[in-house]
Write a structure and sequence with these properties.
This protein is mainly α. 85% of the residues lie in helices and 0% in strands. The protein has helices spanning 5-72, 74-86, 89-100, 105-112, 116-126.
Length: 132
């Protein structure tokens, strides 16, 4: 059996064709894996997007609630400051003495840091009785 150049070229072409087919099969398999992974990533991204929308919705609702609470209790801080400044019993005792001497609620509010309701109550309970 004589092997000439055509035989070598034929064998080389067959081997090259076989390598090409194996390479194509390997590439197709790799591409399928990447497609499956891309689908998985896209599914995960869609789920993440839904969760982010939910978090954003909750955040907006929480922001509204916080704002409402801040509005409802805005005066509490000022009121606590007033109570801390005036001290405990001495202010009421002094306010009662002034009410007994005929002081009006406005003066008690201004002088002793009482709220309008507290000043009215002290005046009604301890103030001079008005004769009709």
């Amino acid at each position: 059996m004589i092997m000439n150049i055509n035989t070598y070229l034929g064998i080389f072409a067959a081997a090259l064709g076989l390598c090409g087919m194996l390479s194509a099969l390997f590439t197709m398999r790799t591409v399928r894996r990447w497609r499956a992974r891309c689908v998985s990533v896209e599914t995960g991204l869609a789920a993440l997007h839904r969760e982010m929308e939910l978090v954003a919705s909750i955040s907006v609702k929480t922001g509204r609630r916080v704002k409402r609470v801040e509005q409802e209790y805005a005066g509490v801080s000022d009121r606590v400051d007033q109570v801390e400044l005036r001290g405990a019993a001495p202010s009421f005792d002094q306010a009662i003495d002034c009410a007994r001497r005929g002081a009006e609620p406005g003066k008690l509010t201004q002088q002793f840091g009482l709220s309008r309701g507290e000043a009215d109550l002290v005046t009604r309970l301890h103030g001079r009785k008005k004769s009709a």
